[in-house]
Amino acid sequence: MSLSASLTNVGHPVAYYPRLARFFGSVNVAILFAQLHYWSQRGESDLGTHKSSEQFTEETGLSYREQVTARKQLREAGFLVETHRRLEHRVYYRLNLEAVDAAFDAWTEAQTKAHSPNDENAFREQPKPQSGDDAERSPGAADSSLDELRQTQSVINTETPHKTPTETPSIAAQAGAKAAKGKEPKKAKEVKEPKEVKPMMVKAPNGVTHVIPGELRYPGESTKSHKTWVAYAIAYQGRYKDWPLWNESVAGQITRFIDKVGAERAPRIAVHYVRRVEEKFICDQLHPVSLLLSHAQKWVTQQQTGASTPPPSLAPAASHKFAGAGKAIFDGIDL
What we know:
There is one protein chain. The chain has about 325 residues and is mainly α. The protein is built from 15 helices and five strands. A three-stranded antiparallel sheet has the order 1-3-2.
């Protein structure tokens, strides 16, 4: 079946406005802006729209690199505010429509002065015959939209002088600068991106250094829960290949656990719980802190007596991968 006969199976079309492409100076920026505007009318968060790069690629056809470039141009023009929520692994996008409107008005005014009272006709109709150098460059042929766009850029550059960067700035950025002088649109509320937090380095007696990602924001060395939580977290990461989340609820549970069993032995019991307890219910729940707290006495007894709870299907303790770890199991963690 031909493409034209099967367009209904190709997928949903994406909005594209040629005039926006001329305004922004980029087709990719225009496509991404239109898609962000579409979702901004349907968003529920004050932070804006949450979309992954894969979702934008699926919806617009823009590659990851094309999205990054388009987002950068929108941010630098003051048209887009991005909020990074690293713990949620999300980026929220919010359009600064006031800045866009002001820049677009200034750009439209510049177009009117540069071409004709009718802005649409200035791009779509064949210009009148010219004389002199312009006539020699365009002998009877209609100028392309790109040529007229460059002429418009020249006019705006004349009105708003600035240093020439390595990459030619878009019309939107230049028009925004002009609008800032005249109308002074309200600036968007700046959303500061969270600063990069240095990773936590925990050095074991055997020389092995455990690197804990800083964005997890685990409790520092001066806190009551630091040693116990780091011990639990390293054991958890060793078992499940992922770091456990630290939040207000977990902090309260760990603190109560320490109060119940004592600060000195709490780290070892936490490691015993994660590495040696193999009860099906506990494993199904992925060894949560809540069960560490609620069954604290049981884990204390097991850790002190060297007992463990392997599932019936496992071989005797001597052949189990955690066998003989009663004391040595904690040697890799500096407390």
